[in-house]
Amino acid sequence: MFELWSQFPNIAAQLKEVHTLMQERLTMKSGPLQAILDELLATRGKLLRPGLFLLFSNLNTSSSLKANNESEIKIAASLELLYMATLVHDEIIDDSPLRRGKQTVQSKYGKDIAVYTGDLLFTVMFDLVVEAFNGTPYVQRNVKVMRELLIGELDQMTHRYNLNVTVDDYLFNAQHKTAALFQLACEEGAYLAGLNETQIYDASQVGRYMGIAFQIYDDILDYTSSEEVLNKPVLEDLSQGVYTLPLLLARQEHKSLFDPYLLKKDQLTEQEAQEVNRYVLKYEGVKKAQQVAEHYTQKALDHLHQLPDTPTRQGIESIILLLLERKQ
Length: 328
Known about the structure:
Blueprint: H1 9-25, H2 31-42, H3 48-56, H4 69-94, E1 98-99, E2 102-103, H5 105-109, H6 111-133, H7 138-158, H8 167-192, H9 197-224, H10 227-230, H11 236-239, H12 245-251, H13 255-262, H14 270-282, H15 285-304, H16 311-322
Antiparallel strand pairs: 1-2
Helix pairs in contact: 1-3, 1-4, 3-4, 3-8, 4-6, 4-8, 7-8, 8-9, 9-15, 12-14, 12-15, 15-16
């Protein structure tokens, strides 16, 4: 879990505290419910969003506005809980059997339990936000971001199996369902670091563009990696009628090749999905998507370079560049 953060010992130590706090807040009297929550915590990922928040909160350690460690840990935990809740609900919508190589809540316990588990995570998340941010604009800011996440997911659902979906539609969804939470993490960190209004804006834009690039790379991996590496089914989006950037860019000048497959909708076979995959690679959908991701990565770096030039800023840059190399 902390491999990504090995170059930042202080952040890694704080992330251990974040995980401990999440365990405490997700301790329930019900044995069966506790088992579900324990399984969720055991499938934790890179803690990317809370880690980014903690990095940004250290951009100006001399600030009098610097939060105490307890508040920082609560905010970091709230970010991860919000992310976890959206994942649980995503898995219901996508009918996903696996997440990080393990059975999902909806697959193991059913959709009803999964819905309420995700809702429970939202309530614990807001408890932490209120405790840490009461009296600041960031309680309402979290509400706004949660709304953005829901709008992004709902908009993506309305475009399922839609052959008229555009690159702009894709980028809208990426901004709302993925980048909004990155943006919140970086913005909240900059706020607690005591940066000025312009710098807080730049930090939020770092998160925004980083999040868009992150989503594009995630969608590229669906066409270039394996189920063993990803720990989830490959081409899952395609089979669910979610047409991501590599497919959209490859299809632009070759609709006559792609559309007979896409018109099959949920009747598309695994073999046919693999044929679509080969067309995406042949017509440079992945290469073109990588170029778009690099464009947004550069925009993130441009805004980052407006922030105080400190070792922490250099660390943030290294994390952003790691996105170009990730394999899962």
